[in-house]
Amino acid sequence: MSVTIKDVARRANVSVATVSRALNGHQNVAEEVRKRVVSVANELRYSPHHAARSLSSRRTNTVGVVLPDLYGEFFSELMRGIDQVARERGLHLLVSSYHGNPEEQGNALRAMRGRVDGLLLMSPFVGTEDFISENLAPAMPLVLMNTRLAAGDRATFCVDGYAGARAMVGHLADAGHARIAFITGPADNFDASERLRGYRDAMADLLPDAEPWVLPGDFDEASGHRAGQALLSAAQRPDAVFAANDMMALGCLFALSQAGVRVPADIALAGFDDIPLARYVHPALTTMRVEIADLGARAIRALLEQVGDGAQDPRTHVPLVPKLVVRDSTTKATP
Q: Which GO terms describe its molecular function (predicted)?
């Protein structure tokens, strides 16, 4: 005999309506009650009849997630935060990536129509509201993550890459480094452009006599390794290298190690994001900490408020300020 919603309500000592609200992600349920309901539902192996529920509520109980890529620790951590909240609310995830291709991004967004109740979107390519309106239904609840689109009528959660880059350059300058090279990200990527802008402005303000030294990168280890090799072949090497993300910093670290260059004794090295691996390499990487999983968790909670009862103001703009984490890869330069 199959378990019903009434069985869950009886075991959890709540009403059927409360069980329904808890499992559908509504915000007007106390967190302790929600956890008890989810725990009982799992214990009883209760499985809602999604087809029938969709017909009655016009909901799919599925959240769409569209990301630039799924490779790397940043996206792994982001998905961990999103998935944790989705599982707590008894929801499914429909995940797609478009590997940095604007046309594929549009295809991914259109593929979500009618299949999800709301959408989380991280895109360095979304620059206008027109792009969203052309590819998504007007009523689709949407939360943007790290996009160049102005807040407008959309909820956005953005890492303040500009402030983070300025803070890192300040740390390196305070440690006595003057020749600070920067490994940037893709030219059309919003995060990369903000971090590059922060680096340039900080160099102009703090080290006006030093020339900015920018090397191309692609947010992956291979491009960081290439940048490290380019720095090694320069007539004069930098005092410090600041990579726009940790993956490139780790690639650069490998290039420096291969050449017998000591970090930080010969060249200091810093990254951005604080992926889990950053603290376990040798030397441990100085970086700007972004609470990546928390970014995903906060974004999906905001989305579920829109899906549930519309309590979340869709114009919410939440800037997430990274925190400087100093580890062994940077130190005071020798005069």
A: DNA-binding transcription factor activity; transcription cis-regulatory region binding
CA-nearest of 291, 216, 223, 284 to 252 is 223
User: Token pair 């620790």 is at which residue?
Assistant: 73
* Per-residue pLDDT tens over the stretch 93-134: 999 887 667 778 888 888 887 789 999 998 766 655 677 777
Domain boundaries, the chain: 1-48, 161-290
Distance of CA 319 to the CA centre of its chain: 12
Mean local confidence (pLDDT), 195-202:
98
CATH fold of the domain at 161-290: Rossmann fold (3.40.50)
Asked whether the predicted pLDDT for residue 204 surpasses 60, the reply is yes
Cβ atoms of residues 43 and 99 within 8 Å: no
Q: Helix, strand, coil % (nearest 5) of the chain?
A: 45, 15, 40
Sign of CA dihedral 310, 102, 148, 298: positive
Tell me if 249 sits within 8 A of 283, measured CB to CB.
Answer: no
Q: How far apart are CA 93 and CA 136, in angstroms?
A: 18
- Residue 188, SS3 per DSSP: coil
Spatial distance between the Cα atoms of 87 and 90, rounded to a whole number of angstroms: 5
Q: Which CATH architecture has domain 1-48?
A: Orthogonal Bundle (1.10)
Same topology, domains 1-48 and 161-290? Answer is no
Task: List b or e across 158-193, with b for residues whose CB sees 16 or more CB atoms inside 10 angstroms.
Answer: bbbbbbbbbbbbebbbebebebbbbbbbbeebbbbb
A 10 A CB-CB count for 313 gives: 12
Q: Which tens digit of pLDDT belongs to each residue from 170-181?
A: 999 999 999 999
- Overall pTM > 0.85: no
3-state SS class at 221? helix
| DSSP designation for 278 | G
Pair of tokens at residue 129:
């509201």
Give the pLDDT confidence score for residue 100 in this predicted structure: 66
